[in-house]
Amino acid sequence: MGYPLKNRQILLKRRPVGLPNESDYEVVTSPVTPLEPGELLMRNDLISLDPAIRGWMSADEDSYMPPIALGDPVRSSTLSTVVASRNPDYEVGDLVLGLNAWEEYTKLGDIRHIHSFATKMPKDLGVPNTWLLSVLGATGMTAYFGLLYVGEPKPGDTVLVSSAAGAVGSIVGQIAKLKGCRVVGIAGSDEKCRWLKDELGFDDAINYKDNNNRELLGCAIAKSCPEGVDIYFENVGGYFLEAVLDNIAERGRVIICGLISQYNEEVGSGPENIWKLLVKSARIEGFLIRDYVEQMPEAALKIGQWLAEGKIRNKVDLHTGFDNIPASFLKLFSGRNQGKLIVELEFDRE
Amino acid sequence: MGYPLKNRQILLKRRPVGLPNESDYEVVTSPVTPLEPGELLMRNDLISLDPAIRGWMSADEDSYMPPIALGDPVRSSTLSTVVASRNPDYEVGDLVLGLNAWEEYTKLGDIRHIHSFATKMPKDLGVPNTWLLSVLGATGMTAYFGLLYVGEPKPGDTVLVSSAAGAVGSIVGQIAKLKGCRVVGIAGSDEKCRWLKDELGFDDAINYKDNNNRELLGCAIAKSCPEGVDIYFENVGGYFLEAVLDNIAERGRVIICGLISQYNEEVGSGPENIWKLLVKSARIEGFLIRDYVEQMPEAALKIGQWLAEGKIRNKVDLHTGFDNIPASFLKLFSGRNQGKLIVELEFDRE
């Protein structure tokens, strides 16, 4: 691995209105300058594509993380290899998990990448590297903490999951099954619904494309969840949330993990039936995995154990090629991806 | 107290659209039939007027209590005197708290009044009877359980209360002060705001009539709650909730006690910025006091003690006369009442 001469990057040129398109980005090639003392250079082998990135593209200063600055490369979770280091804590060949960007190489220490971090990963875990960005990474943690710590499932609870065939939802449903819950998924195709039931063990699944408004989805939920919804793991928002509140059980819990239907809207829409929270003594609660830093070792251990025992399955939707990042990213918003969306960059392995 | 010959009642003739008006009611006078064995007849001395009654007038079958049937008298909390009894557990002169109706007399055992109950009250409590329907009744319990059990205030928390000059809100704010919180109220006039600050010890108060949209109210909240809102005790809904979510602190808690701005709307409106729950790890939670039946003795004792020690004050907005019930009820929805709204019925005391 020689020191690279140039770096390809996808910069955020302007803040998207609605779905991001190519005029929101600028693809540039820039030289890689030599390392200063303390710096390290990472090659971004795997780029994780997550709905949250769309939020970071917007201008909201009052979010949990500052927006991506215009002109910066698009922030993204990454699994990288250290290709050069002037930092005593890292050596060439180290595998690191980070919050880098849509670029081939990221230099840590570069003031622009203030959110970068580089957590060294063991190289002999015996699992595919993609798992470190999915079920063993933030995706798995999100499912684990959201469902177990925010939702507090009890055996026999009915757990409804939206984006159930997505990266987080598919793990949530499987953990809920392990906890003795009845699990129903909402997904965007009959094929995905079959996958949820036949492969992942969901008790039932609803195709929202056949139930594309509050009334229809509400009816489908009522049918699949005759005792009401005790826990709803929310990844979508909009009419999904209203249809669920129409069916919420007493003391029901809505876990807000994401609101993907809202991310490309200029003005969001809230559930008009929020009074259901009152009459059912129910709650809606948001969370961030950084609230659970202390519990992360427990989560990693538990998830690793379930994987080893074959009790949960991880599905990765792997794409290839730097140029395909923006188009792959859009799959998240069209309901077309299944499992965890990752783009693998190609490098000449010297 | 002779056995009454006739009973005046205000029946729900049709379900109101928007604010209830006189054509939604029918005032009737009917004979009082003799008691059957086991029955008792109560004279409704005090009628409690609460926002929840508006909800019971609507047709929603999936609420925490069935709607008032068309043709039935309007359900209401009441403090009554037993005027005749063929039930061994009650004797003439007993003071009873019940869920009777907008009528002079209620017969318990009457199948129509399936929600009636009659909880005997001690006669020598040394407090005005109106207090049994307010700070020592459901109003006080609502404030106590909502704030303490749902909101879980910690010393130093900023607690914001809407309808702060109302029956529940005024008690919530005072309890929050006792728990070491910084307390800000939202109310509908400068006079009420002065009362909250000067008489009840609120740290600050916002007149929403000067801040009648999300942006203005949000600015006022930001000014009064510079560290953000840790707990919001919600009685209003609509743009109030959005303005608060714009200012919610990390791990903030919104307690849904009521949504009075929504009760007369055909279609409610939900907070479009519900994503704030996600980025702030915050929650919105509803509750009903019946969830806390076991804790009620504790609450009554505690509130009684605070009252005795002069640590909280109770304000009653007392009206007089059966005919004035519907007009008095409307005061709740115009922001004109201050404290607990009760109508005292007049009877010839023989």
From TrEMBL, chains A, B:
Domain Enoyl reductase (ER): 18-343
A family per Pfam: ADH_zinc_N
Domain of life where this protein originates: Bacteria
Signal peptide annotation: none
Keywords assigned: Oxidoreductase
Record's protein name: NADP-dependent oxidoreductase
